[in-house]
Amino acid sequence: MGRSIAGELLENGHEVLLIDKAPTAISVERVPQAEWLLADACEITSLDEAALERCNVVIAATGDDKVNLVVSLLAKTEYAVPRVVSRVNNPKNEWLFNESWGVDVAVSTPRLMSALVEEAVSVGDLVRLLRFSQGDANLVELTLPPEAALAGTRVGDVTWPEDTALVTIIRGNRVLVPDRDDALEVGDELLFVAAPAREAQLEDLLSVRG
């Protein structure tokens, strides 16, 4: 998991340091552009050696929720890392991954896979893709169904619920940054950042005409 994330980030021009305490996990030849540190990320001395205070983002991506929580808490409280992303392996532990444990964004692998399946088969239903812990907001998706009340309506003419922002329209192979003059079309995949309390209101707004 860590090597895969590192590879993606390096391709996008970021500097990456990988920390692992298992010698067998250190595979410099697989991600040669990254820096590597053989150490226990749950130890303050290891994080001092990694100079974590210089990092813009820390990603806790191990297969152990306890480890991910400890790394997240240390990164935020001891080193004031601006952005902490943490992997949730067991959905039962999801409630722990919040700002109290230093987590800005919690990524639940089982929930994300479930959401992607829902997103692929659901039209007209709101699908929660990602939870932003610190901001108490979610990334949600809805595919505009046939006969939707807002089909043909300009983005700027829609009164969106409070604490809700339309961030992207996916139309066929195109990714559109919403403009107030863009008209919504049937089949558009709409991505919003919305407060959880507004999700039902948003889904109702985008529903089929009654």
UniProtKB/TrEMBL annotation:
Residues in RCK N-terminal domain copies: 1-107
GO process annotations (BP): potassium ion transport
InterPro entries: NAD(P)-bd_dom_sf, RCK_C, RCK_C_sf, RCK_N, Trk_Ktr_HKT_K-transport
Record has Transport as a keyword: yes
Chain ranges of the RCK C-terminal domain: 127-208
Keyword line: Ion transport, Transport
Statement: the UniProt record of this protein carries the keyword Transport: yes
Molecular functions (GO terms): monoatomic cation transmembrane transporter activity
UniProt name for this protein: Potassium transporter TrkA
Lineage: Bacteria, Bacillati, Actinomycetota, Actinomycetes, Kitasatosporales
